[in-house]
Every structure is written in structure tokens, then in C-alpha cells.
Design brief:
This protein is α/β, with parallel strands linked by helices. It folds into three domains: 303 residues, Rossmann fold; 118 residues, Domain 2, N(10)-formyltetrahydrofolate synthetase (2-Layer Sandwich), CATH 3.30.1510.10; 83 residues, Formyltetrahydrofolate synthetase, domain 3 (Roll). The protein contains 19 helices and 25 strands. Strands 1, 2, 3, 4, 5, 6, 14, 15, 16, 17, 18 and 19 form a twelve-stranded mixed beta sheet that branches. It has a four-stranded mixed beta sheet with strand order 20-22-23-21. Strand 22 and strand 23 form a beta hairpin. Helix 13 packs across helix 14 and helix 14 runs parallel beside helix 15. The longest helix has 21 residues. The protein is globular. The two termini are 19 Å apart.
Length: 558
Amino acid sequence: MSFKTDIQIAREAKKQPIQDIGAKLGIGSDDLLPYGHDKAKISQEFINSVQDRENGKLILVTAINPTPAGEGKTTTTVGLGDGLNAIGKKAAVCIREASLGPNFGMKGGAAGGGYAQIVPMEEMNLHFTGDFHAITSAHNLLSAMIDNHIYWGNELEIDERRVTWRRVLDMNDRALRDTVTSLGGVANGFPRQTGFDITVASEVMAILCLSNNLADLQKRLGDMIVAYRRDRTPIYARDVKADGAMTVLLKDAMQPNLVQTLENNPAFVHGGPFANIAHGCNSVIATTTALKVADYVVTEAGFGADLGAEKFMNIKCRKAGLAPDAVVLVATIRAMKMNGGVAKADLGAENVDAVNEGCANLGRHIGNLKQFGVPVVVAINHFVTDTDAEVQAVMDYVEGQGSEAILCQHWEKGSEGTIELATRIAEIADAGVSQFAPLYKDELPLFEKIERIATSIYRADEVLADKKIRDQLKTWEDAGYGHLPVCMAKTQYSFSTDPNLRGAPTGHSVPVREVRLSAGAGFIVVICGEIMTMPGLPRHPAAENIRINDEGLVEGLF
């Protein structure tokens, strides 16, 4: 059986003018700032004008821990959004923008798949509307202004050994993780050790995604700590007078992007912090705007529920005053088999025993999500190799967990494949049964917040942190940052910090290697295990297969 590739399906899409998509949500053409015919930004004036409206229902799509088999979280998000519209609901989708790093590295595109995609797929996976370039530029402007301030006399008495602000690039490039700058003599400044992170790990990205408007954006940018003096007092971005110019560079990037699904339903695509090293959710301004103009908003959080959903609940919802009405947990039969010990090459053969063995990972995610007081429905993202017996095994397991599972075939059939899921999710959301609450209160000490996540979500026995890290957390508490949530940076492949430990491990420890204060974004980053803030490319990066063919079309992007 042969299937069209995602990019072939996307190219055959009968797109509507973006003004027609905006009209479905009551957004007039004057409030859309078009980027070509099929994408536009929504004006701040329009966003301001709808703030007094009631919110629609918020539905979060998350997943089990990702495996090389792929779970299809974005595909399910898009399929559910189309399904809700197909049953007569006014629904919109909210997802993150794609980073060039993983697109050209291992992951490929990030616009859904099969007949549940957002278009224009190629532009979304490349430069789109330039938001990430703006974030990169704003971040590196600050880097340049810090070094420039030191060069011209260092009036602020910055300790050059304690400049914490690095540079960023939207690319996977391990060679830049650890660098020395300003070599070459007096004219080039004072040499110091620094490095690059990937743009999606920048605090500027997190701030853009958590800010309500430009004034809030500038305040948060100014609040970022970029260095320390010899007496350990902090230097803020506003001290080097960078916050105003950074806001100017981010002025357009702050406005949400509107595009469409293959079935011509509205989709907001805005922001893109990584979920394993940042908070993994699309922007607050896109989500809150969508909630004002649609009756149902389907959004996703990156990687598995132990990372993306946890941060969605504990960081994004806390900061934005949001509460999800229902959660969809995506799982695949293939991933169950991988968690049950089956090699990727053998996933095509029926193996009900392995499915049952691998369901422990799914069960833990169900239990974790219920801790937040939200109703959970499992969406089984169907692959053509799945057998009825394997699907039934997952259905039975989920029922035994006090939840429900629904088979979804959106990849193959579009909205037709998610009618049952859409109908059930709308029922749950309308019933108002969610009793959402974050996992911990603001006033809990920082280290206890870390322990709460490690023990309640990862099911670890303990958190390992040396005295230096504990003292650093105490210093931040004394400085008035103790109320902040924590943003855990760890591998996405396991509940533990060991990426090879699949399933539902217990008896493990969570080692904290480093903690970073993101004072502007408003959270503490807790780096656990061997997690990189600048990824490297794999042995055979996706970029090797990306090219322009004889017809002038992009090939290999997905």
C-alpha cells in the first residue's frame, strides 16, 4: 500500500485566502497583516478589542514519552481541531512554530502529518514570518551591548567572569557550545569564555511566549539578569539600556500568526520554546486571543506529558490564569511495543504481549495528569500496521485505569477520523468537570518544588543536588524569587534522566547539574542529567536530503 508524503498532500491543499480564514473567527481584513496570501499576523488593536469577551473551552493535547516510532501529537492536535469543526463547533488550533535546528537535524517538520496538517507547510518549517530571526537578533543585540559596555569603560562594574548572557543561533551546532570571544588584541575587547544556545532555549523566546503585550514584553526583557558585579549584585538588561531596542526588534514577532489546516480551519502558530530545555508551549497571547474568538481551542505542549503538560499546567496556566477543560493524551500501538521492548525494525509484527508490557508508560501519564484535576481521554493515533487485538489491548488497559481511549484515524482520513474523539471531548469540556489546580503553590520553597515534580511526576526516590546548588536556590529566595515556578530541563525520552530507561521506571534519582534564574520569563531553569541547551546534528542530518528539485520545489523537508 503506497501513501502520499506529507509534503505532497500539503502541496495539493486547496487553501483559502487568509482573509477568509480570519473572517471565520470574526477577524476583519483590516486587523490582519498579511504575509503573502496564506498567512498573516493579527493586530494588537484587534487583540485589545476582544479582551472583555468570555473564554472558550481550552483543550490540551499531550503524549506519552516520545519514541523513535513517533507519536503524532501535532497531527492529533490538528485532527481534533478539524474534527470539532466538522461536528459544527467553532474551533481553532494553537501550536508552536518550528525551529530550523531540529528541522535540519533529526526531527523534520512540525506542521502535523498526512491529512491532518497545517499549511503552508514549507514556509512554516523554514523562515515563516521571521519571528525566530527577530528573537535571535534581539538576543544577540543584548550580547553585543554587554560586551560593548565593558569595552567602553565598564561603568556598571560588570565582572567579566560572571557574564551569564550567552549568544544564540537557530541551528544545531555543537561546535559553538563553548567558545572564547574577543580574541585578536585590544581593539576587539576583553577575551572571555562564553558560548551559544539554540534560539528556542533563549530567555527572550520564553518571554515572548509569556508576555501579554508590548509593555509587558519590555518590562520582562528589562528584568533579565545578564551578569553580576564582583560583589555578586545582579546586572539587568535594562542597566545596559537594551530593553527598548530589543522590544522594537520584537514588535512584529509579538503578534500571533494565523494560518489554516488542510480543511481550511483557523490555526494560530506562534512562539516555540523547546520543552526539554524551556517551557514547551506556544505563546500566551496566541492562546488567549484564540480563546476570545473560538468556542474551543486545541493546543499542544511539547514532548511527553512529564515535560510539556507539566510545564503547561505549572508555568503557562499559572502565569496566564488559564485552566484546561480537558486533556487528550496521544499514544500509539508502535510506541507501546517499543516501551515493551520491541526493536524498531520489528514493530510491524503483531505483539499483544509487548503492547501490554509497554502500557505502563501510558498508565503513569494518565495518573500524572489526573493529579492536576483534569479529565483525560487517550487518543490512539492509528497506524496502518496496528491490529485489532493490539488496539483492544490498549483500550482495555486504559479502561482499567479509570479513563477512556478512542481510536483516531486523522492521519489517513482527516476530520472524518476524529469525529468520535471530537464529540467526546466537546461533551467533557461543556460539562465543566475539570477541577484544575497546579501541582504546587507559589510559596513552596524552590527545592521543594523541584522535589514535588521529581517525586510526583517522574516517580523518583530523591533529588540529588550539592550544597552549591541548594545555596544558590536559597540566595534567589532571599532576593525575592522564591515564588517562581521551576522549569525542569531533562531528557524527553524517559521519566528518569536516563534516555534509555523506557516504560515506567521507579527507584531512580534526579541529579540537578545546574540551576539558572530566568528573572524576566519568571521561572527557575533546573538542568538535570546530560541535557544540552545547544543540540548537535546526528550522523546523518535531515539536511542531507533536503534540496530543490528540477521543478523548483522543496524536497526532503518532511
